[in-house]
Amino acid sequence: MTDRLITDLRKLMTSAPQLAINAAIAVSAIADGYVTRPSPLGPLFVAFNERGVSAVDLADSPADFEQRFNDLYGRVALPVDRLSAQIERHLDTAIATGKPGKLPLDFSGLTEFSAAVLRKTAEIPGGQVRPYGWVAREIGKPGAVRAVGSALARNPVPVVVPCHRVVRSDGHLGNYSLGDPDNKRLLLEIEGLDLVEYQSLSERGIRFTGSDTTSIFCHPTCHHARRTSPGHTIEFRSERSARSAGFRPCKVCRPAVMAA
Amino acid sequence: MTTTMTRPDLSTLAGDLAADLDGTFTAYVNATADGIFSGSLRMLGDRRDAEDVMQETYSRAYAALRGYSGERIRNLKVRGWTWTIAANLCRNRLRSRARKPTAPLGTLEVAATDAGTEDAALSEIGAILQSALLDLPFPQRAAVVLRHVLDLTYDDIAAALDRPVGTVKADVHRGLARLRRAYPEETIR
């Protein structure tokens, strides 16, 4: 007997949405999901997997991004329309502030050294810059300045790990890997850094500034340095000159080793 | 990228997954996703919830398969096994909805709007059946959906719902009887 109910129930079968299928495939090791998010540099492609955000990139088209992601990481990037709760909650803030905060990041493909460079870089506050040598010293590899530069050039998650805040000590901004090299300047200006002032100091050889009321010296862009009124600001070309003037390093921006 | 892939033969899927999990996972998802999505959608009545369940199902399936021996994977009845994960997630989702008194209101609203747009494809009788399914107790609803929407065998359903085959058959029978009552008068023969 043909049964109308049975026939009608069969018709309740439907197709899964392609973006949801992509998200299901992206739970595996062969694929990551990706979404796009607006940014001052244009739409950012943000890829992620079960470990966290794996890539942040600019590209002319989705196909460009997918190709580059596959070339770099050997996995497929599939467009999806959903993020894990943890990423959803923290992604937009991380992009807006240039600080990962609680956004989970996938550093599993990186060396321990590169991951340490990125974690340290993530501590630099918005609107401030630190030299490559500072990152090297802070992670306990003071001789590895060039290696810090290479690690930052391969930062898989620019913007949210703010490699744009690491610059050369001579005042040149140094390289930037995300799209146009001038994007580094653009991001720093958006964050409120007065680049003209910073670069004029650097070009005169000034590495640190201090306050004659506190006898503490800082990186020139440190929040504390910028609170010092111009009349009380002392400029230093080196750690040695600051110390011999009786100044000690700021505990927040740590321009030099704290040692006694 | 994955839309045009041919649906692979389910009978070789277990062997392929055992031999090369990562190489076969995409084919496995493509072969089973429509069923997992449709079944979850009919059990939950909410598209977004069904998508959530689907993603969580494959996330758990992948983690489980990575821990299984090749022999254990080869012996899996893939579709039924995937449903053991998905049915559990559907049941849990309904329970947590019931526990949070504010959630069902929001969910119902979403379900209503979604039904308006997505299930425009659903015929009038389809919409009546969907709503009648949601009125069934979960064991009957799940059994009817797995048997008659997805065409799973009673053995697979019994394994997926962790209930004896006899109980599942009785649930399907009772569920169908109640669905028949939902049909408009003139269609009853």
Secondary structure elements and their pairing?
The complex is a heterodimer of chains A (260) and B (189).
Chain A (H helix, E strand, L loop, with lengths): L3 H7 L7 H8 L5 E7 L6 E6 L2 E6 L4 H12 L2 E4 L5 H13 L14 H10 L8 E2 H7 L6 H9 L12 E2 L15 H8 L4 H9 L4 E4 L4 E3 L4 H5 L5 E4 L2 H6 L3 E2 L11
Chain B lengths: L9 H10 L1 H24 L2 H21 L2 H5 L3 H22 L2 H16 L6 H12 L2 H12 L4 H8 L3 H18 L7
Helix pairs in contact in B: 1-2, 2-3, 2-5, 2-8, 3-5, 5-9, 7-10, 8-10, 9-10
Question: How would you describe this protein?
Answer:
- The complex is a heterodimer of chains A (260) and B (189).
- With 260 residues, chain A is an alpha/beta fold.
- Chain A is built from eleven helices and ten strands.
- In chain A, the strands form three sheets. In chain A, strands 3-2-1-4 form a four-stranded mixed β-sheet, sandwiched between helices.
- In chain A, β2 (44-49) and β3 form a beta hairpin.
- The longest helix of chain A has 13 residues, at 85-97.
- Chain A starts with a helix and ends in an 11-residue tail after the last strand.
- The model of chain A has no long low-confidence stretch (mean pLDDT 93).
- In chain B, α1 packs across α2 (21-44) and α2 packs across α8.
- Chain B is globular, with a radius of gyration of 17 Å.
- With 189 residues, chain B is an all-alpha fold.
- Chain B is built from ten helices and no strands.
- Chain B has helices spanning 10-19, 21-44, 47-67, 70-74, 78-99, 102-117, 124-135, 138-149, 154-161, 165-182.
- The termini of chain B are far apart.
- Chain B is 78% helix and 0% strand.
Provide tags for this entry:
heterodimer, A: alpha/beta, four-stranded mixed sheet, elongated, B: 189 residues, mainly alpha, 10 helices, disordered N terminus
